Amino acid sequence: MSTNLSSNFLNELGKNSNKPNTVIEIELDSGTKKYGLHSGGFSDVTPVLRSVSTLQNKLDTKKGISTRGSISVTLVGRDNFKGLVRDEYLKNRRVIRKDGYVAQGFQYSDYAVTFTGVISDWSRNGDELTLTISDDLMSAKKKLPEENSTKTQYIDYRNTNPVDIIKDIVIKKLSLAGILSNGDFEVWSAGTGSAPDDWALSGAGAVIAREQINFQTGIYSAKLTYGSATAMLTHSVTAYSLYKNKQVSFGCWVKSSVATQARLRIDDGVATTDSSYHTGGGEWEFLTVTRTISGSSTKLDFSLMTEAAGALYFDTAVARIGPSVIAFDLNVDERSFYIEKDRWFNNWTFDRVITKPEEVNKYLGELQVETNAFLYHDGNRVNFQAFAPPFLDETISQWNDTNHILHGSLSCKSGYADAFYNRIVIYYDYDESGSGGDENFGSALISVAADSQDETQWNEVKTKVVKSKWIRTRTYTQPTNITGVTIYHLDSSNPVGKGYLRYNADGTIQWRASDGSGYGEAVTITETKKYQVFGLDKIKYIRIIVDTANIPSVAQADEITISHLSGDLYARVLAGQLLRRFKNPVSSISFEVDINHLAEGSVFRKITDLVDLTTDEAFEFGDSTWVKERVMLTFLRPDYLTGRAKIEGAETKIYTNNYGYIAPVANTNDWDAANADEKKYAFVGDTNNQLGTGNDPGFIVW
User: Fold this and answer.
1) How do residues 320-363 score in pLDDT, each as one tens digit?
2) Separation of alpha carbons 180 and 294, rounded Å
3) Is residue 306 very low, low, confident or very high in pLDDT (cuts 50, 70, 90)?
């Protein structure tokens, strides 16, 4: 999500002289406290900020890792902050930074949200208190899966889209989206006339619709129309027991033209608490409600309600633990995951049952490298972005000497040293042993850019190695009759087909591969732990987790279906993408811009944005062989006090849309008859959009 700017902000931003202001909102048990460089004319803003740093946040295009961003703020006057460190528990408190101007007619609603995060540390030095505020991705230091006493923990991501894996880790496992998911109503998988994802519609005659004219964030809101009884759009929390005896706050933007029509509700199964009604004034209003969840609760439902005839709109719903909730406090841009999945990873399938507790950073880093994508925090939300060309309907801004790049600020650094590779080796089919040696991967692919190794170009060979723990050529079903047994690895030497797992009355277990041979050596189950079970030839094997408390009391057998995954194809696609990025050394470019020109329309630019540099400094002006440099912004640090922004970018080498409409799905239009949406996509596949003998679906590439 880019930073949204009001018309007042844009007008003030364009002036030659102005008085910038920063306000820090800290959400505490006693309520939200506001501290500013200036009061700005607002009675609830205490002007005791001594300093505010800019966002420390940089995208690593070489390693493909998540950004980690933080800011620091300093408050002065011990009487202003001694209550914070004495009476309030500051760690992990949510903080919002807002920037604006001290000017006549400049309202607090005109202040732009430029950073959100949590307090990760603080220090006091005499009359000064310094807070370190870290972005929401900092919690990715948590380990998954959570270790149990028998060390048989696991998370099952078999036959799963890689974007869905990343989204599950970020939203579900780390709970970065807060209590609610899809609170901005951007995702409508069931259709525009059905309830948005993670919400349920109720009420006789009620009608729900995706709205794209009236909205607060993103591009959609939820339009709810009353039928013949109270209509509700409800988000039900599955893990409601986590919130027993805790104070929970719920807020949402509502637009209604009828008084006593719209309000919010929290229902814990014991009692309900409702918000005040929307005034009916026809404008967006942020309604909130707070309830302490009963220790005897049987559920936790957050509902958006209409109790009178007519239609109204809901957008940007947020729920938090605590006495209050802040408008627009959405930590994750969930829509970015759906967009990138649809564009570039629609039919990708990764396969892994992870058993070893590791920092989520590690798992997310692996997934980003293996999808050639980035997970980043833009100052407001966590986003997901594929490293890929712009779509046909995207306009790339041109930044030049006149309006953007400050004179003498542009510099380039060669990418030869650490960003040049023309030979890619991808290991895959990981054996889940916990080790990372070459021998722990069952398959490997080598891809070479022979042209760049020739003496007419670089006359050099440099290899980049990717050890993929998520790309596999096999997936499998789990046993159902042999309870207490979970397969966490199936070696790629097992052929596609039907394998058999047998539990014997004497407490042993055996594996029969799908090659028609017999059962292998019996393994005795003695305790709850992990086991390796071989087939008859002692080559084809599986690895299992056994929970002896749930093992069958009698002999049982299961047929295990082994299916083909396109691991070799995914490896080739990834290798091709990496070669395009690295075989022609990618240089890094840095420069400064006037902050007045950092806005594109009504939003500030953000990291991962693509821009074309068309300056005298960026290329030899008028030279037809070097027209522009297309860069992806990897670092953006605006300084509102000086009115300048430091920018870094990486050359992308993707000047054009390097994809086309190839081999469409059977029964769809060919190129001449295809519509604009269809022409956005490229497919790898035969005339029926299928791959190989396994009839796997084709997928989008560039």
Assistant:
1) 888 888 777 788 988 899 888 888 888 889 999 999 999 999 99
2) 19
3) very high
When mean pLDDT is compared across 169-173, 264-268, 653-657, 691-695, the lowest value belongs to: 691-695
Secondary structure of residue 581 in the 3-state scheme: helix
d(CA 419, CA 566): 28
User: What residue type is 681 in one-letter code?
Assistant: Y
Q: What are the helix and strand counts (H, E) for the chain?
A: 7, 47
DSSP label at residue 146: P
CB 435 within 8 A of CB 489: no
Cis before residue 638, ω within 30 degrees of 0? no
Of 588, 627, 607, 625, residue with least CA distance to 400: 627
Helix (H, G, I), strand (E, B) or coil at 549: helix
The confidence score (pLDDT) of residue 154 equals 95
Query: 545 to each of 95, 434, 489, 528, 554, how far by Cα in Å?
Result: 43, 15, 10, 8, 19
Neighbouring C-alpha atoms within 13 Å toward the C-beta of 370 = 30
Angstrom distance (rounded) from CA 547 to CA 540: 23
Six token digits for residue 531 = 């086991």
Q: Which two tokens stand for residue 335?
A: 């829509």
The torsion angles phi and psi of 535, rounded to 5 degrees, stand at -80, -170
Query: Helix or strand or coil: residue 247?
Result: strand
**By C-alpha distance, which of 23, 702, 41 is closest to 390?**
702
The residue behind tokens 């821009």 is 611
How large is the C-alpha radius of gyration of the chain? 28
Stretch 71-81: mean pLDDT? 92
Report the percent of the chain where pLDDT is more than 70: 90
Q: For tokens 């719903």, name the residue.
A: 317
Instruction: Give the Cα separation of 300 and 244 in Å (integer).
Output: 9
Token pair 């004034």 is found at 281
Amino acid present at 358: E
Q: How far apart are CA 157 and CA 173, in angstroms?
A: 13
Q: Which of 310, 312, 314, 311 is nearest to 302 (CA)?
A: 314
User: Maximum distance among all alpha carbons in the chain?
Assistant: 86
d(CA 401, CA 375): 31
Alpha-carbon distance of 574 to 370, in angstroms, equals 7
- pLDDT category at 392 given cuts 50, 70, 90 is low
Reading the block at residue 549, the tokens are 């408390």
Q: pLDDT tens-digit profile of 633-670?
A: 988 888 877 788 899 988 887 755 444 444 444 555 55
DSSP string, 65-101: B----EEEEEEE-HHHHHHHHHHS--TT-EEEEEEEE
| Helix intervals (H) in 156-255 | 162-167
Neighbour count for residue 670 (Cβ, 10 Å): 9
Query: Which single residue is written with the structure tokens 């769809």?
Result: 668
What confidence score (pLDDT) does residue 257 get?
Answer: 95
